[in-house]
Amino acid sequence: MRFVLNHKRGIFLLFLLLTIIFGITAVQNTNQNYLLDENTLSISAPDDPYYPNNSSSTAFDLSGYKNTWLSSIYGVGIQLDIDWYNITIMTGEERLIVKLLFWHFDDNLDLIVLDWTLNPIVDSTTFTDNEYIDYILPSPGMYYIVVYGNNLGNKYDLLWSSIDPFVSDDVYDFNDLNDIRDNATNIFFLNNTWLSSFNGLGIQADDDWYEIFIPTGMGHLIVELIFCHAFGDIDIEIWDDFYNIIASNTDVIDNAFIELYNLPGGIYYIHIYYHNAGNTYDLRWTALPSGYDDWMEPNNDFYSAYPVTPNYYGGLMITDYDEDWCRIYLEPGDKIEVYIYFDHYIGDLELELYDPSYGWRAGSYSTNHDETIVFSADVAGNWRIKIYRVAGNSFDDVYYDLDIWVFKEDPTKEDPYEWNDNPENAYPLVEYEHTWLSEIHGNARQGSEDWYGIFVTPGFQDLVIYVIFNNSYGNIDITLHQVWDRHNLNTIAGNYSFDDNEYLTLYDIAPGPYLIQIHGAFMGNEYDLWWDDLRTDFRPDDNYEDNDTPLDAYDLSHEIQHEDEYGIRGKSLGQINNIGIQADSDWYKISIGSEFLQLRVVVLYEYSAGAIGIEIYDWDLHRLIDNFTASDNEYINYKLPSNGTYYIRIFGSNEGSPYELFWELQELSKGMIPGYDIYILLGVIFGVATVIGLKWKRSKRNL
Prior knowledge:
The chain is mainly beta. It is built from 5 helices and 47 strands. Strands 38, 39, 40, 42, 45 and 47 form a 6-stranded antiparallel sheet that branches. It is globular.
């Protein structure tokens, strides 16, 4: 890490000057978006979703993505030319941190920050993996982050943050709170989530302790620590709940990584310590099921292939001689590009493509980093992608990222949300409330009917939908359908004008799943789409108070909606006495005297109104399992140890967030539903079963 303008940087600045004056770039500067034109398709990797950002005038705006890794936005960056990003530094946050992660072996990358006049401020130009900047800027305002190299297509991840230059420690250590183990910061709810995305980066100015919880059966633990050794060495330890150090990493290099297997369930602690130099760090812990390797498991054969769409999938892994299979629907003429990115020296992976009849169609078997397949489908159906390890290779776990691109033969249908031409393949927008399509994967095109799935949360029952387009390029209309079951839709409303744009506003509609249908002239006109369900329940607290303690828990045992030989389904709170309000701890109890021991609990709520979590306790008030994630809705699917009385605790930020609660008991042989199949349960409640293919967020601790 250097802040001196050296010879190497001087060459870059000369090239930068030529770029500004003459419009020269490393590749031809066109207006095409990241969906490649059919004539540009090749075996080389396409540029990334942030392209075109090869000049200051086309810089990708990361101002709204502070403390967010690129891989969590639209996928990693690809350095095929100079990549420009612009950020905005607020007053009082002049300490800038930039972390650039890449493999130097694939091509060296460098990093520079310029002010709004293109005056160089600080750079990082080592000849090793990764680059880091930690620097106090001269003033607030707009700045550019520029990534450059030899234009060989090296992949990278990037994060930026800005903090008060006079603050000596992070928000997790307020008043020295987490300096000792007994005051550890609870990050139970951050399973597989970077610390930075929760409340910013950590600062190692003294010992930092974090508390995590691993449920029984989730004993595969991965801990990742990202920092720059040159700014102060940081070490890491994992402690169990009995004051034993069970793992550590004290290497004197950038970053640290710990992986443990077959841990018993319980509380564990992450200890960050050593140099106390005020160095910033990012931290992520992930608990996976024992015996599983990554979050797509089990997907070890053709028939258990994990369903995917064109997107970037990170954090995958091959263990031993495991195979990973994915499936994707293709139509004749669709061109698919598949990339896997991995470190060949840890283990050599191979990539293959199979048609819907299990016929091998293409493979990539190089002896270098990464593999690539480019292929044009000739039959319709669910094609398979297979990733596996070369026989005789190292037994070390090999981490890889999967990147999938598909290009439609009909350019009017070429947008990132295809194939959403019918209700069964509606693109899920459940997790994208108050977000424009252009902020997700870019604008869509109306070359055919487009369907999107949304979910109106109980207590948030005013719905607003905007479709923005220019009617002169082709008329677009909008229709909203309520989902009754997989074959029956109830048309609620529509807007069919011949003007620019369409709007829908509906008041106090029923909660549950809905489909937005975009239709019109089928001329490939681009459009943007936005939706939100607005809060309608503003009560200070609910009708189940006072249930603030286990002693006063509201008894749900006799509130039964349905019972048969397969299980018991309780009434929802909305069916009993209106939905709940999380203004304090809410306790509920269920007395179980039958053979139905598989318990499922669903809480539907809006994270923007206040965070909510779930805990399950036994009759002695021993906590059995919890789920507390930093996004909408929570779900627990848990095998109870025996009959008896169990308690459900609803807790959170105490901001008065409305929520709906559902519960169900089933025989163990009937009820082992994987995490993403929560809609089988909601299908019974709302009368819909997997019709919109909604991807439900869930903690991996609750498989």
